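Records of this kind hold a single protein each, on a pair of labelled lines. With that in mind, the following record should read easily:
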Amino acid sequence: MKINSAIFIKGIRGTDSILESDFLHLAFYGRSNVGKSSVINTILGRKNLVKSSSKPGKTKELNFFKINEELFIVDLPGYGYAKVSQKEREKLRKLILWYLLYSDVKNRINVIVLDSKVGLTDYDEELINILQKNNEKIIILLNKIDKIKQGVLFKQIKSIQKKIGTNIEIISFSAFKKRGIEKFWEIFNIIKKKL
């Protein structure tokens, strides 16, 4: 997909008129420190559109970016970060669940960014289970593949597929080395045509 324009629109923490748009949502989830901001920037071919922070857990709202006047990329808060309070973690978890279950978004593709070293965490599994129960479209991006050996990556993919099934596409990705971008857009287009 050729990216002609990509602009930040707004951050929201609940019901907002932006949710009434007919634009497709390309929603990105991932635990804190998984490299979600870098992944989005890499996919869009931008350097600093999505701000990444040296302090994980900084995103506390749903950030909307308009792409090519035809879709929204939604950057959700990172989850599972141990250094924020339990209360704050629960608040972010509720915000993610609200967006998923109660925001009335009809047209959505969900991208879950995982760290290829860490694999699937309990938070990731919980999120995938909710998405699957609601017949949502899911892509898994296994980021930071440049940091692990090929054999380890292969085992990690096998392990993830065993837990979540083989009907979800897993894309090996490196934001640092810019690998997996074409594959991502290819899978995105296949899913989009089925919506």
User: Anything to note?
Assistant: The mean pLDDT is 92. The chain has five helices and seven strands. Strands lie at 6-12, 24-30, 62-67, 71-75, 108-115, 137-143, 169-172. The longest helix spans residues 86-101.
